């Protein structure tokens, strides 16, 4: 673990250096820690140095610790930043730049060593999920799961990510061959191309077609090897064929409730992009959260059909977040983790998850599992949440922020029917047919009277948002909370 400490206080700089040295020596590592007396020297050194963990004093002459962190984030989104200060008054400001932790001076081993243990554990686990790329634009984390293929053009190496981002590398292809070809999902199909087999949709006579529509050439002498390697890779998932069979049955059912809304919780931006891309490819609306607090806030504001939850989240693990989320939402919670040990999977089920998907799962199998679990959960779903508004169909009740609304039977039916197709504009004739089918059409007066009463009740109960909007000249629509 490469560590830097930046502090103008010589005594604190010496103390931290000694404690970090003791920790590294005690863990069998060679003591490596760069020390800086001001932010300017540290920023100048960043052109040649790269760190995993950086300790920054908040108050330094010239450039403050927060300013240093802001510039550091411009080139390295993944470095762990720990602020150190004599007072906690700057803690809120420090977290605005993605601080990993905040320590109060004088720093002691009792607070420092557990922090170093956690950072070391997370960095060790992360090494199996990707690598750091340093290029002209700065430092970026490359997730194996989000890397679609690697290409060489005119002796330049380009890393194509599944979310459409392309990173140019400054080193030779041979360096990436060493990182990638030892993994089962990567294969060299041409002298200028490495491909992630997870993204292969079709193998032709002279090219591979990916799920994102890219056509990648196969060297003539490698065609048979590519096909065999792909079949071996696919066969690794045979044990999960039960999920594919269930999905085949469900795919015969036509969905009429619009796109599924999914909450994806993962602190790794690269992996969020990868898994969200798969879900969006299948027509889902995805909201992302980087930590437990963001996830709980979104779950309180919006209604989701499913929650995908990473286990290794800094500050609070996914198991405890799951238990809190279950208070906020009735959506099924699926763990999505790089941890494959049976004990961790059992812990996920014990916490309330309905499934546990490991991050080495191929995209199509991942989607099959998610789709199956959502459809199974919706078979007997009787409650729907739209931010603070909860509709309980079995009890024919509507609750706003936990308080029951006094709605007539007709008003409840209006709210329920409109919410079933959120954002769809219903004409007054359509609404009349839904609620008063069989009665003579009165020109829309009955609809207007009941809709006006329902809107007033909703607005009095929750002034921050208009759940039902009048679309001039067209009709009415239900608008769920979106912010």
Ordered list of secondary-structure elements with their pairings:
Layout: E1 3-6, H1 10-26, E2 33-36, H2 39-45, E3 53-57, H3 65-75, E4 80-85, H4 91-95, E5 101-104, H5 109-127, E6 130-135, E7 138-143, E8 147-153, E9 156-161, E10 166-169, H6 173-180, E11 186-190, E12 193-196, E13 200-203, E14 207-210, E15 215-217, H7 223-235, H8 241-250, E16 261-265, H9 269-281, E17 285-289, H10 292-301, E18 306-309, H11 318-328, E19 333-337, H12 342-350, E20 355-358, H13 363-378, E21 383-386, E22 389-392, E23 397-400, E24 403-404, H14 409-420, H15 428-435, H16 445-461, E25 468-471, E26 475-478
Parallel strand pairs: 1-2, 1-3, 3-4, 4-5, 16-17, 16-18, 18-19, 19-20
Antiparallel strand pairs: 6-7, 8-9, 8-12, 9-10, 11-12, 13-14, 14-15, 21-22, 22-23, 23-24, 25-26
Q: What can be said about this structure in brief?
A:
This protein has 483 residues and is an alpha/beta fold. The protein is built from 16 helices and 26 strands. The strands form seven sheets. The chain has a five-stranded parallel β-sheet with strand order 2-1-3-4-5, sandwiched between helices.
Key descriptive features of the protein:
483 residues; alpha/beta; five-stranded parallel beta sheet; 16 helices; globular
